[in-house]
């Protein structure tokens, strides 16, 4: 039984133990269920990540420090600028009109859909998180990138919880959306960055 | 007093499972041995993590077998307990026996 493509990808990226992968394949061909296979795979990824942190503590701490420093730089200096640029790009017809450059787009109603405005905030946030994850993954490999993603997203909770307390449970869906976006963006960035590291890990 | 690196409970179980499995001690039989004894499913990843730690401590040694098609062409990694490993297992047994003795609650008697 051939393992599914995402499973092979995760195993080679995180576990990197041919004997273990062979054992999983052997058990699968002996009739173990797909649920068993995925449970084993996920627990192996977690065990490998925890082992990496235990064996390379300084390396892991360095990843967290670098990740948070980048987050601070991005959200203090780059994000407001990126937000404005994205806003003006979507509203380019107004920008050109008010800057006195051309009124052609404005008068001919050539414009981007205003629905795009809703994506400026999540889009620019995701870009930053993706970049932070990429740098951490590039410098530290997939396992540490995964650990950093969990630490970073958990670190967002104290920032977000006062908002829930202030505005009530109604904001929980949007808060969970932000957390999911952060989790996915940092993780995808980390895995993308680590894919460029030989063997997927430092 | 010299600081001693004690075997964890799971490491000891893995060590004994290797001895039980004999010549055929690779990941799957080791996991099965532990599952049959404890009645609980064990994660193969945890077995390999424990095996790596035991190998780093010099308590087990491993060698690669031949690749087989049902394993996707991957080789089995066979483990055996080294002399140091056997001594550690005996030492752990002695220590546990000493700690166990004189505990009526755990010997089926009323405290």
Largest pleated sheet of chain B: 2 strands, antiparallel
The global form of chain B is: globular
From the spread of the alpha carbons, the general shape of chain A counts as: elongated
Overall radius of gyration of chain A: 22 Å
Radius of gyration of chain B in whole Å, from Cα?
Answer: 16 Å
Question: What would you note in describing this structure?
Answer:
- The complex is a heterodimer of chains A (202) and B (111).
- Chain A has 202 residues and is mainly alpha-helical.
- Chain A is 80% helix and 0% strand.
- Chain A has helices at residues 5-15, 18-29, 34-55, 57-90, 92-98, 104-107, 120-140, 142-167, 172-195.
- The radius of gyration of chain A is 22 Å and the shape is elongated.
- Mean pLDDT of chain A is 86; it is low at 198-202.
- Chain B has 111 residues and is α+β, with helices and mostly antiparallel strands.
- Chain B is built from 4 helices and 2 strands; from the N terminus they run αααββα.
- Chain B has helices at residues 9-21, 27-38, 44-56, 83-100; strands spanning 60-68, 74-81.
- Chain B has a two-stranded antiparallel sheet.
- In chain B, helix 1 packs across helix 2 (27-38).
- The longest helix of chain B is centred in the last third of the chain and has 18 residues, at 83-100.
- Chain B is globular, with a radius of gyration of 16 Å.
- Chain A binds chain B through residues 2-3, 15, 17-27, 29-30, 39-40, 43-48, 51, and chain B through 26-28, 31, 43-46, 48-49, 52, 64, 67-68, 70-72, 74-77.
